[in-house]
Design a protein that fits this description.
Length: about 300
């Protein structure tokens, strides 16, 4: 029975057993799509990545991303962690490793810069593959029911709950720090919301956040996606990027370079920090980046 190698890393953290777990299959050429889905289900991490040779030799690799239930076109921590794993190798499918990598994914090309400290690769920074898309306003009652809070606990001062995307759709909603701590996902309410707001890329999920100061530069967040068997996620880069882009869009300044630090996973015992950068010019969000550190955890083989 053939075996395929994998590595696991913790992403958006500098401490092992913090941040978000990721399994990376750096050479998945022997695996079918169905085997990838089953392996991701076996790991039960929020995502698992499978690396294949690029279709265009000018790119670094093709990366397929699976949750425990399905394949998705883009996600943040899988790209950061995959670049970290591949960057620590001598080459990827015969290509030498430079300062940056470019991945072919369902949402498009993802450009990733490797972060180094004293000559060692310690993390990565990626550019979101798509510009901000504001998809739909979501009823406050629906969001409140999904996270087991009262309607009045979902803030509307800055914005109503909104489905937004820079490659993968999420509902973003603001609350207080106290309410953020009390939030709990309600699977039945999520299923009803998914029927009410269908979208092609993934199942209904909510990125709930609170400000830790007067501005929007420091936030805490929690992400719930029970329909993907992710009761709570410890670090969600794609949602953080979409939120940062949307908050920049709402800001009255026409030109700005926004830096946001988002802490997540605190109540799960897996603290993480996601750095979001947004460039806005003449009222338009032109570029969104997310960055974070990684820590290697395990290496092994899986028989398929």
């Amino acid at each position: 029975m053939p075996a395929t190698a994998f590595e696991t890393v913790d992403v958006f953290t500098t401490q092992r057993f913090g941040g978000n777990q990721l399994a990376v299959f750096a050479d998945a050429r022997s695996l079918s799509g169905e085997q990838m889905r089953l392996i991701a289900s076996e790991f039960q991490y929020s995502e698992t990545t499978f690396v294949l040779p690029p279709q265009d030799p000018d790119n670094s690799a093709q990366v397929r991303i699976f949750t425990p239930t399905n394949e998705i076109p883009f996600a943040g921590h899988p790209n950061i962690g995959t670049a970290f794993v591949l960057g620590r190798r001598e080459n990827v499918f015969g290509q030498s490793i430079g300062k940056s990598m470019r991945f072919e994914e369902g949402a498009g090309l993802v450009n990733v810069d490797l972060l180094r400290h004293q000559g060692s690769i310690v993390g990565a920074r990626l550019k979101a593959p798509r510009r901000l898309e504001v998809i739909a306003s979501i009823e406050t009652d629906i969001v409140a029911n999904c996270v087991s809070l009262h309607r009045g606990e979902i803030a509307a001062g800055c914005h109503a709950p909104m489905m937004v995307s820079v490659g993968l759709p999420f509902v973003v909603a603001e609350t207080s720090l106290v309410s953020l701590g009390r939030a709990r996902p309600n699977s039945a309410a999520f299923a009803a919301a998914d029927r009410a707001y269908p979208h092609a890329a993934d199942r209904f999920s909510i990125f709930l956040y609170a400000r830790t100061g007067e501005g929007i530069e420091c936030l805490q967040a929690r992400m719930f996606a029970p329909l993907n068997n992710i009761w709570e996620d410890s670090a969600t880069g794609s949602a953080a990027a979409a939120l940062g882009a949307y908050l920049a869009l709402l800001d009255p300044r026409h030109d700005m370079d926004l830096e946001i630090a988002i802490k997540q996973g605190l109540r799960m015992g897996r603290p993480s920090e996601i750095r979001v950068g947004v460039r806005k010019r003449v009222g338009r969000v032109l570029e969104v980046t997310i960055a974070g550190f990684c820590v290697p955890v395990m290496q092994g083989m899986i028989k398929v």
